[in-house]
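Q: Please design a sequence for this.
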């Protein structure tokens, strides 16, 4: 949601709350219909577009509303491009990042190289799952997601405890 900041004379973004799991089907041109509920949640910022990128940790794609991507870009600008570690991170993180918009029908057309990364093979299956994660969304091949969530490679309860401890340290 965009609100006018009358004290500073500019627009600011309130926290997005993108939630839910939405089954989607990819057509033979690499397009899927963006769920109406997410379009409604993003109605104040969707006209600015979305950025889709590879996830760092898993074989899925991450969609960022443009205001969220702008915050990420601002953080990347703080990195030193002459520091090898920073330069490599910037290079690999931005590799594949693509600005996208919904067409008149509400579909998103995904580049084939990103579909390959997310293990989407139209010859096998066109079923996807789009998941809201607060400020961003993840798009998964349905089969890959089921494998990940049905048999995680970590103990979620232990992870939850560790994350809670981290939050306590930070507050």
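A: Design:
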């Amino acid at each position: 949601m965009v609100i006018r900041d009358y004290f500073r004379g500019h627009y600011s973004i309130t926290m997005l709350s993108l939630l839910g799991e939405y089954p989607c089907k990819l057509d033979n041109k690499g397009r899927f219909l963006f769920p109406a509920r997410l379009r409604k949640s993003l109605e104040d910022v969707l006209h600015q577009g979305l950025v889709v990128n590879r996830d760092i940790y898993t074989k899925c794609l991450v969609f960022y509303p443009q205001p969220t991507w702008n915050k990420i870009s601002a953080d990347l600008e703080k990195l030193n491009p002459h520091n090898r570690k920073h330069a490599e991170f910037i290079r690999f993180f931005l590799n594949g990042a693509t600005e996208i918009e919904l067409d008149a029908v509400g579909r998103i057309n995904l580049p084939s190289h990103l579909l390959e990364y997310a293990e989407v093979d139209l010859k096998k299956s066109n079923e996807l799952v789009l998941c809201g994660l607060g400020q961003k969304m993840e798009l998964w091949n349905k089969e890959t997601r089921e494998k990940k969530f049905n048999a995680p490679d970590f103990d979620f309860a232990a992870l939850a405890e560790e994350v809670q401890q981290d939050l306590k340290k930070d507050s």
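Q: Thanks. Anything notable?
A: Strands lie at 2-5, 10-13, 21-25, 31-33, 50-54, 61-65, 98-100, 107-109, 127-133, 136-141. Confidence is low (pLDDT under 50) at residues 1-13.
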